[in-house]
From TrEMBL:
It comes from Psychracetigena formicireducens. Keywords: Acyltransferase, Cytoplasm, Fatty acid biosynthesis, Fatty acid metabolism, Lipid biosynthesis, Lipid metabolism, Multifunctional enzyme, Transferase. Homodimer. This is Beta-ketoacyl-[acyl-carrier-protein] synthase III. Residues 261-265 are annotated as: ACP-binding. PANTHER family: 3-OXOACYL-[ACYL-CARRIER-PROTEIN] SYNTHASE, BETA-KETOACYL-[ACYL-CARRIER-PROTEIN] SYNTHASE III, CHLOROPLASTIC.
Amino acid sequence: MTIQANNNLGVKIAGCGFFVPERKLNNLDLEKMVDTSDEWILQRTGIKERYLAAEGVGSSDLAVHSSLQAIKSAGIRNEDVDLIIVATVTPDYPVPSCANLLQDKIGATRAGAFDLNAGCSGFAYGLMTGSQFIINGSYKNVLVVGVDLLSRITDFTDRNTCVLLGDGAGSVILQRDEGESGPLAFTLGSDGGKYDNIIVPAGGSLHPASITSLENKSHYVRMDGRAVFEFAVNKTAKVIQEVLQQAAIDIEHIDYFLLHQANLRILEGVSRKLKIPWSKILVNIDRYGNTSAASLPILLTEAVNEGKIKKGQLLLFAGFGAGLSWGVTIWRW
Ligand code: ACO
């Protein structure tokens, strides 16, 4: 359902940060691992390289780096954080949450903490969830993180998936704003009937980890690439129009579109369908691949660091992915 946001109190992104691990894997490296080519990957996805976390590193470790940057740029202390929401499908452990580990590692001693699983839409869901605590006046500083180590659930012998994915983390601090910043309208959506379009079949309560699940490689992510592609272009375009209508904003008044970076051709498809000038679509998929929940906060932080985003501008965030799920919001900066 698309709703108009209730902005009794404004909410601003007071700080942001991102982090990717050191090891870079380019398309030529992948040529040595599976039957693929630099040319195929570039043409079909727009991806040139991605980063992979070293052994012994968990999602919370990446999230520490991006979160400390966000806290610093917001000008607060670690202990000022009231709530931590971590959007991830790759927590360090199934139990406890990645957010609990992050809370301890950064010394956010006063904060509550929980994880949120909404696939590649995770950050959009987290942004809207965290905003509610600010808008209703409960909390002053909410840390929202999108982090995924997709390499941990990727079968590096499966060319259908392994060329697409990368590891990364991005964080924002949400605070009250006396001005007009914050969401103008948003949608959080789900089409659970298509749950198996992107799925890790084993390791959950239905099919716990077993010798068979290991042998079948069903602890790795599987995906119907064409179905997801079609969904991503059509649903994203449709929902963007709905949210614009709800906010009573013409598409040409949006300054930048921050769309989940899954495939360059998906971004081109949405741009074509909605006649969005390419210069307004932020792109970094060539350098990071699909980093799932980390994709949008990495994109945002780069744009902020480059000085692209200015006070009062209108941004449109759109996440889509496993679930199937989607989350779109128009945000006044
Ligand atoms: N290298 C070379 N050839 C390949 C590769 C590869 N890495 N992968 C697939 N191919 C082959 C296929 O086998 C197929 O061969 P065939 O015609 O002989 O059967 C051919 O290339 C074309 O395959 P398509 O699936 O039609 O290729 P398409 O143009 O649709 O691109 C892709 C595939 C890149 C996966 C695209 O469909 C896509 O990006 N889908 C969305 C993926 C996505 O966003 N997933 C969500 C993220 S995953 C997550 O959330 C964890």
